Amino acid sequence: MSDQSATEAAYVVEGSEGDRWAIVVGLEVHVELATATKLFCACPNVFGDEPNTNVCPTCLGLPGSLPVLNRNAVELAMRIGRALRCTVEPSVFARKNYFYPDMPKDYQVSQYDKPINVDGELALPDGTVVGIERAHLEEDTGKNTHAGGGGRIHDADYSLIDYNRAGVPLVEIVSRPDIRTPDQARAYVAELRQLLVAIGASDARMEEASMRVDANVSVRPEGTTELGTRCEIKNLNSIRSLGRAIEYEARRQVDLLETGERVRQETRHWDEDGGRTRPGRSKEEAEDYRYFDEPDLVPVAPDEAWQAAVDANLPELPASRRARLAERAGRPTTDGGVALTVERDLDALAHAAMDAGGDPARVLTHVEHNVPVEAAGGLDPAQLADLVRLELDGALTATQAKTVLAEVIASGRPPADIAAERGFEAMDTSALEGTIDEIIAANPTEWDDYVHGDDARRGKLTGFFTGQVMKATKGRPTARSSTSSWARGLPPWPGSSLAGGARAPGARAVGALPFRKDPAMTIAKRMVALCFAVGLAGATVACSKSDESATKTSEKPTTTESSSDNDSGGDSDSGGLGDIPNLGNMEECLGVAAAYSQMLLAPSAALGGGLTEEQMAEYEKSMEELGASVPDDLKDDLEVVTTAYNTYFKEVGSVLKDGDFLSSADELEAAGKALEAPEVEEANANIEAYLNENCG
Fold first, then answer.
1. What pTM, to 2 d.p., does this model score?
2. Taking a C-beta distance cutoff of 8 angstroms, is the pair 419, 390 a contact?
3. What pLDDT, on a 0 to 100 scale, did the predictor assign at position 627?
4. 548 — alpha (psi -120 to 50), left (phi > 0) or beta?
């Protein structure tokens, strides 16, 4: 597996005396196989039927009944093993003896020392490789329902047992203890689930318990290698619960160890409502189960021909599909849109549309955002490619393309016919310029204020003029024509890199963007900085809409200065940090500012504006170094805020890259509503309070 030192350092539990504890996690994932019948009998393998209707003497363990192994279950188990890069070995079934009412035989048929799959691995999207110890076949148990009390057997009034699930084929996938953070655990389960669905081995529906996770959690002092005593958290049925349970259990174990107590090896159960684990039973060791070979079943030894057939029938796995789609669309393999498209099984549609001549980036954007999964099968990839060509040729705006695509999916008609029927025709540039001239002539006072007013006044008037253009043209101009025409009316500022010689006050390279005392700077100010940094004509059109959104999202009083006030300390080519306020603890304050500056890096780099690649790399490195100085008690708040803003700027960057400001203004405003979330407002308030107190 990969070196875990970096990831281990990424998540620690702080002790009361300042000691730092690392966590070690291994996962056991139980997956019900997608067979028609159970593992050892012909009873149906169906979820949701009436209790105790899919049973027979064999799965009820009645005397005289004998098991017959399901060949398809063996093949699906081999398929899982090969997809996880395991070696398929000759295997033996064993009886695992325990006395629970959910298994009527009082033993479970499983595999012990000779499992069918051994020694594999699963690579996560971030590059981490988690080792797979084994993936063995066994039969599932029945289902207990404890009525009354808290839903556990010890305080129940009575219990009900459904044996429909008893004997369903199951593969238990046991990882090595290679996982070092709750996020890695979540990523492991998510990746494994996607792989299982892709190869057709299971539907892996956690909500139906066809995929269940047990987490083995232990802690140890940071930097040491000896494993601590583990506790097993049983039957976690959601990825969210998995992460929360690991976090709680690690904290619980650290608290025990720091008070001189020992961690007791036991199974524990996750209480979702209480947000805590509760004790179950003492954890058995292998000898407690008194394993011995199942006398009624012969060993399973798949020959080379069978294994080769399984390998030949494996589909392309999700990791490979993501890499291929990302490369073609010009996105990183970790991109959320790439992952979502593959997860929704729409990447084949995207590739087919690209093969038909559709621009890869725009095709992926439409498939990601505008193609419902349930309707994708009826969409002709060639028509999607035609739609993208119309959009890139300027015949359709992004919003119009979205509308046309919805109708193409519903009717199957050609995009060009739908666009013509709806009157979606781009205006001639000269006609648009004439319209703008008429609007300016009809509103001389507002135009004079727009040209000579401050940033706040100009932002409001940009919205006014944008609305007038949209009203007069009924939304017909494309961004390419409207931005150049709009920039033509702006007064020239020295050093312009904008079309028409226009340069707004405060325009400067990304590296010279000023840091601000108030971390809750309005989205309008961030948008202005971004627009000016990338040097796009007429970008104030986009900024105006974000200003309206920002008015709603940031109404608390701040001391944020305007762009022009803050930009007095550097010129447009400096590439420096500009004027930095008088800071108390400069290192920590710069660290907080650096963390915020990351919001501007991704969209600016994607658009190729402001800095060269070398300057961008140097700037990003310096920001990462400064970001390391962020005080610990602000890191969670900064993560909440930067995640929310980066999500917003991803949408902004897409719109800016497409150049479709006017028709996408409403979409930008809608995307900005995520910044109104209570957790974002609370995190901003915490950061603002810290900076007001410590950074002058």
1. 0.63
2. yes
3. 53
4. alpha
Per-residue pLDDT band at 651 (split at 50, 70, 90): low
Question: CB atoms < 10 A from the CB of 298, how many?
Answer: 10
The whole-angstrom separation of Cα 266 and Cα 232 is: 6
Span 24-54, pLDDT tens digits: 999 999 999 999 999 999 999 999 999 999 9
Phi/psi for 21 (5° steps) reads -120, 135
Tell me, what's the pLDDT at 115?
A: 97
Q: What token pair was written down for 665?
A: 């203004």
Measured CA distances, 527 to 104, 540, 599 (Å): 65, 9, 10
pLDDT tens-digit series, residues 59-71: 998 999 999 999 9
Locus of tokens 């708040």: 637
Q: Which long-range contacts (CB under 8 A, 24 or more apart) does 327-330 make?
A: 328/354, 328/360, 329/360, 329/361, 329/363, 329/364, 330/360, 330/361
> How many Cα atoms occupy the beta-carbon half-sphere of 538 within 13 Å?
24
Q: Is 685 exposed, middle or buried (0-12, 13-18, 19+ CB in 10 A)?
A: middle
- Token pair, residue 83, equals 């997809």
Terminal CA-CA length for the chain: 47
What's the pLDDT score for residue 162?
94
Q: Which helix (H) or strand (E) holds 221?
A: strand 211-221
Q: Where are the beta strands (DSSP E) in 443-488?
A: none
Asked if 404 contacts 415 with a C-beta cutoff of 8 angstroms, the reply is yes
Please count the helices (runs of H) and the strands (runs of E) in the chain.
Answer: 24, 15
Distance of CA 585 to the CA centre of its chain: 35
Instruction: Sort strands 20-32 and 169-175 into parallel, antiparallel or unpaired.
Output: antiparallel
Q: Which residues lie across from 231 on neighbouring strands?
A: 217
Number of other residues whose CB lies within 10 A of the CB of residue 157: 8
What is the spatial distance between Cα 663 and Cα 67, in angstroms, rounded to a whole number?
66
What lies within 8 Å, CB to CB, of 622 at 6+ separation is 594
**Cα–Cα distance, 653 to 649 (Å, whole number):** 6
